[in-house]
Amino acid sequence: MNHILIVDDDIHINNMLEDILTGEGYQVSHAYSGTEALLFLGAQRPDLILLDLMLPGLSGEDLLPKIADIPVIVISAKTDLKGKVALLLGGAADYVTKPFEIEELLARIAVQLRKAAHTAAPSRLRYGDIILNLDTREACVLDHAVKLTRSEFAILRLLMENPKQVITKTVLLDRISEDTPDCMESSLRVHVSNLRKKLRDVSGKDYIEAVWGIGFKMAEA
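Below the sequence we write its predicted structure tokens.
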């Protein structure tokens, strides 16, 4: 079941879209501000996001660059052509103008989900000086090989797949549990500490940030 996050401060639109989307077989979550959406994305990864622009706090335009590898359909009353083009070039997958036809929106959602499903998974991830080969499970920093344990590889992969998001400890443990059943909450900090040291020993840089009381994220490259 595909999971769609609706980011809109209008409760009536949220409820209307939820009724329609759940009726089409989608799982639906809500965020009523850009800040709330950012917190949600630190804990969960939906398959698609419906994003309004006029949001309290963090606007849709400010939120969009912080979303990585999730198709975003902007839904907005703004009709300025230059603004639409800027959003599409800035990472939005599609743009729907309010008021919209439900049939058209459902078709655009289906198209983006189909595209995402057929996108080939990358064989390696890159972030700053780090290259992570997903086939060989090898990390490379500034052309120097770094040997990783299974737990360290799983942690680094998840963080590099979501480089702009804070991954909570709970989500981190849940997402890597299949690959590293031996990584428990009591040992997670040790695994992360060892991983940070291995990467830092090569370049002197700290690539992973601890967000106090929440979890971890990739440091700014």
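The chain has two domains: 3-118, 124-218.
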